[in-house]
Amino acid sequence: MDSCLAVGTNSSSQCDENQEFQELLKTLPKEKGWAFDEAYLYQGFWIRAQILQQIILCQHQFQARHTDVLLATQPKSGTTWLKALAFAIAHRKRYALPTHALLTNNPQKLVPFIEVNQETHQQDLADRLSSLPPFSPRVLSTHLPYASLPESVTSITNDCRIVYLCRNPKDTLVSTWHFMSKIKSSEAAYEEPLSLEEAHELFCRGASPYGPFWEHMLGYWKASLERPEKVLFLRYEEMKKDIKSQVKRLAEHIGCPFTIEEENEGVVDDIIKLCSFENLKNLEVNKSEKMLVVDCKYFFRKGIVGDWVNYLTPQMAEQLDQVTKEKLQDHGFPILFKEATIDEPSESI
After folding, report:
1. What is the torsional sign of CA 215, 216, 217, 221?
2. Where is the Sulfotransferase domain (predicted)?
3. Among the options 91, 100, 143, 178, which is catalytic?
4. Structural domain contains residue 57
5. Domain tally, the chain
6. Are 226 and 161 contacting, i.e. CB atoms less than 8 angstroms apart?
7. Residue 296 has pLDDT above 70, yes or no
């Protein structure tokens, strides 16, 4: 098929852009994808071709506002949970709990990605962002590594806030494998999913979605040290251990701190309950609706720390631990991922 027809437009400028993109792909290393199309190494990270074209447009077109809040994660690192919490915190004065937007909308819809449209790949970025409710702050999200963010986001003249959430790499691997397996075995793909052994091998080589895992994490961690007023670095495991203090940190960083009166009235506790795993997972919208080919229920699995022990062999876990040690030891990264397993679901996603 002609590349111009493939993008569904007769615009000569868009046709030229698409042809330039196809030429770019020819120059990039490529790897087996976890679902659907192949992944390409762009700016040091592995990205699906269809998403990559949108990322390049985002890098050129996205204009951050000074009041924006950008939530950054790697896939399956607590993204849905963080979106729900940040949205509920930032807009708590606009929604009464009985009629809250999170009760009828998946968090992925309320907090859209800047680089990809989960509802239709064809919608223009500017049109999509302009259709958001006229609230301030805008709460947006991304899986992009820090070095690949649009310049308007990282500029020293822009005061927008970034929140990064990281997770134990072994849990991230297992959760990503489950998620991609469900997508790849769905009606939209008709393909056999990757085996866990294949996924483990790709992950250890850095060829995970938006990976390498360690470089992605280190980029935001270093930015949080250099610009703590702009970048907040959170750990999934710490949020599981003490959600209330972490929610208050999050609120403070995005410019929406809780007042003493709100704390006394139980507002913090209400938000934590609203955004809990069990509450969101059991909502009808998250059990029956879809975003593109992805069932909303796929965003909710177990919500526990340490589930990797039920899937990875001791040899697989040891290999991933060794890679993690090698990747982090020369960067002064102080966090050692704890291996505790929590057997019951809690507030995390």
Report:
1. positive
2. 67-331
3. 143
4. no
5. 1
6. no
7. no
Buried b (16+ CB within 10 A) or exposed e, 18-45: beebeeeeeeeeebebbbbeebbebeeb
Q: How far apart are CA 24 and CA 30, in angstroms?
A: 12
In this prediction, residue 342 has a pLDDT band, given cuts at 50, 70 and 90, of: very low
Tell me the whole-structure pTM to 2 decimals. 0.89
Of all residues in the chain, the percent with pLDDT exceeding 90 is 59
Here the CATH number for the domain that contains residue 90 is 3.40.50.300
With respect to residue 45, please indicate whether it lies within any of the assigned structural domains: no
Residue 2 falls inside a structural domain: no
232 strand-pairing partners = 163
The neighbour count for residue 282, using CB atoms within 10 Å, is 11
Binned at pLDDT 50, 70 and 90, residue 24 comes out as very high
Q: Which phi-psi region, left, alpha or beta, contains residue 266 (left: φ > 0; alpha: ψ -120 to 50)?
A: left
What pLDDT is attached to residue 9? 46
Cβ neighbours around 224 below 10 Å, total: 19
> Cα separations (Å) of 225 from 203, 219, 232, 308?
26, 10, 9, 30
Q: Is 143 one of the catalytic residues? A: yes
User: Alpha-carbon distance 2 to 16, whole Å?
Assistant: 12
Q: Which of 324, 170, 175, 166 is nearest to 235 (CA)?
A: 166
What's the CA gap between 244 and 269, in Å, rounded? 8
- DSSP code, position 330: G
Domain extent, residue 275, equals 64-331
Contact yes or no for 57/122 (Cβ under 8 A): no
Q: How many CA atoms lie within 13 A of 48 on its CB side?
A: 15
